[in-house]
Amino acid sequence: MTEQSRSNWPGIILASSATGLFISLYVLGISWIDMHSADADPLERTAIEAAATLDKQQIFDEDFGYLGLRSKKKQRGLSTVIATNQIASLLFARHHLPAIEHQARLDREALTRHRHTMALRLLGLVSMDGQVYQMVRNRLRRTVRGQERLKSLQLTLGKRTPRAMDKKFVDDEDFIAIAPGSDQLPDVLKIDAIFSGTTSNGKAVPSLPRRTIIAIADKDESQDVRSGSSCFTVQFPQGRPDKIDSLASLFALTQDVDSARHSPGRWLQTAGGAVPGSGSLSPPTDASLARLGLGESCALAFYHWLRNLEDCPDPVLLESLYTHVWSPPIPNPEAVDQDNSNSCLVMSSDVRDYAFLRQSGPGEGGQKALRAAFSGKPVDFPDTALSAIVSREGQPYLGGRNDFDSNLIKDFFEKLYLTNLAARDTASLATLSRSFAEHSLNQLNDRSFLIETELASLKRSPRSRKIDEAVEMHINQLQMIKQNEIRLRKLITTTQKLKDDAERVAAQSFEISSKLFALTAHGLHRMDGPETRFLLGKRFIFAPIVKALTESQLLDHIDGADSNNVWLAPQSGPRVFGPIAEMDSRPNTRIMVENMPLAELEAQQNPIAPSPAQTVICDARAIYKSGLGKSYVLSSNPFSAYKNAGQSRIASLARDQLAYYNQSAIKTGTPAVSWSMLIKDNVHVKDESLKIGMPIPSDDIGWCKRLGPYYQSNLDLDCPGVAAEVQVRCPLIFKADEPLQELTLTDPRTGQRLPQIPPCGLELF
Question: Is 118 exposed, middle or buried (0-12, 13-18, 19+ CB in 10 A)?
Answer without folding.
Answer: buried
